[in-house]
Design a protein that fits this description.
With 391 residues, the chain is of the alpha/beta class. The chain is built from twelve helices and eleven strands. It binds NADP nicotinamide-adenine-dinucleotide phosphate. The site of NADP nicotinamide-adenine-dinucleotide phosphate has 28 residues, from α2 and β5. NADP nicotinamide-adenine-dinucleotide phosphate binds next to α2 and β5.
Length: 391
């Protein structure tokens, strides 16, 4: 016999409908007949540490992912992932042709722009290349997103702030201390001004989002790939060499897998608002993680959002914690409590505390800022996995 009105099946449906429509009337969720439950997504910088996690995440949800690399071949971690397509984004003509050809094949829904020079010291050594990659290329990709009528997610950084007045909200005024921060802010400006000149300024799904994130960590191909994973090399160097480790600036290390999940949800939420604001996003995109929270549809979604872990550590504290999970001593790592802004010969200035507030992400966009594991659990599991692999 099938389910009737009082059956468990209705019990399963009711809590969901109550979340969307309130308790007084029973409505069944709309059937997402024309729902694009999957999308075509081009990911630039897909061979980088964030790009790999993003490629994996969108692919795992069934999206058609076109991952772009520059020098690297791959993917190295799973044969089921789509292969990288090599493209030098500094070659503007080739980049235009590539994106247009992709769109002619089938409409591109989203571009996630991860490619960048993310190392402040390297940017300072070759400012011309850094400016092209972190500013001019962003402008080009934003223009292409506009032409292709697709959504662009641009990954920016907490380094656009000076670190003097945390926590920072998306609307707070940037004041970068180093070239990398200046260029990432210039990239933001390029993205935001393309939104303002958009043919569809009121249609946010055809616009661009700036997503600011802090210091990242995750699965790497080599430890110096992130400014956190590199602590593993420091810890493992038990040769007698000593290291000074910053114990002044507070960082909020965030896992790339969590950022990937947030970008996936952003892609759904922003597209949905443009396309179909009269139904529920959770029904429209059945694979999304978007929760019950309904956002005020009468307000446009914010152009800048922040995502970050809210747990702060100095670099020394991160090193000490990872070492404890690896069961290795760190007597050779010396905590350095000097405020770098007091040092006369600092080549690259770094902000003290750039904690990013996630309030707008949760309250205005309706996306959870909860981390899957958090720093301690992620590194504990990492250490267990790696010691098991060695055994
Ligand atoms: N890592 C962090 O702690 C952090 C913190 C805040 C914000 N962010 C931002 O997050 C984004 C991703 O950072 P990430 O850590 O994943 O960087 P990453 O690991 O250094 O990766 C950089 C990516 O850019 C690609 N690339 C470099 N030059 C290129 C070119 N000329 N043409 C095309 N692609 C090029 C690289 O390709 P190949 O490797 O194939 O050469 C690589 O895929 C960046 O926008 C960064 O500013 C990062």
């Amino acid at each position: 016999m099938g389910d009737n009105l009082f059956s468990p099946a209705l019990d399963r449906i009711l809590p969901a409908t109550e979340r969307y429509f309130g308790k007084s009337t029973i409505h069944f969720p709309p059937i997402p007949l024309a729902a694009p439950s999957t999308m075509k997504v081009i990911i630039t910088g897909a061979s980088g540490v964030l790009g790999r996690a993003t490629t994996r995440y969108f692919h795992s949800k069934g999206d058609t992912v076109v991952p772009l690399s520059f020098t690297r071949s791959g993917p190295s971690d799973s044969l089921s992932l789509p292969a990288y397509q090599k493209l030098d984004l500094l070659d503007f003509e080739a980049t235009r042709e590539f994106f247009q050809a992709q769109n002619s094949e089938s409409h591109v829904d989203v571009i996630v722009h991860c490619a960048a020079e993310r190392r402040p010291d390297v940017a300072e050594q070759d400012p011309e290349r850094a400016e092209k990659l972190n500013k001019d290329v962003v402008k080009l990709v934003a223009e292409l997103a506009e032409q292709l009528e697709c959504l662009m997610i641009y990954v920016s950084t907490d380094y656009v702030f000076d670190g003097k007045n945390p926590p920072y909200k998306p609307a707070d005024k940037p004041n970068p201390l180093n070239l990398y921060g200046h260029l990432k802010e210039a990239g933001e400006q390029a993205v935001l001004s393309s939104r303002q000149t958009s043919k569809h300024p009121d249609q946010v799904g055809k616009g661009s989002i700036v997503l600011r994130v802090p210091l990242l960590y995750g699965e790497v191909e080599y430890n110096s790939e992130t400014a956190v994973n590199i602590f593993v090399d420091v810890i493992q160097d038990q040769s007698g060499k000593t290291y000074k480790m910053d114990h002044f600036a507070v960082r909020f290390p965030t896992c790339v897998e969590d950022v990937a999940r947030v970008m996936y949800d952003l892609s759904r939420q922003y597209h949905f608002f443009f396309l179909h604001s009269s139904t529920s996003v959770a029904d429209y995109f059945p694979r999304s993680n978007l929760p019950s929270a309904r956002v005020d549809h009468s307000k446009p979604l914010p152009p800048i959002v922040h995502f970050s872990s809210q747990k702060g550590y100095t670099k020394y504290e991160m090193t000490r914690l990872i070492a404890s999970f690896m069961n290795l001593p760190i007597d050779h790592v010396i905590p350095d409590t000097t405020d770098p802004s007091t040092l006369p010969n600092q080549t690259v200035q770094r902000p003290g505390n750039t904690q990013l507030s996630v309030e707008a992400l949760e309250n205005d966009v309706g996306i959870s800022a909860k981390e899957d594991k958090g720093f301690e659990r992620w590194w504990k599991e990492w250490a267990e996995k790696h010691s098991a692999n060695k055994a």
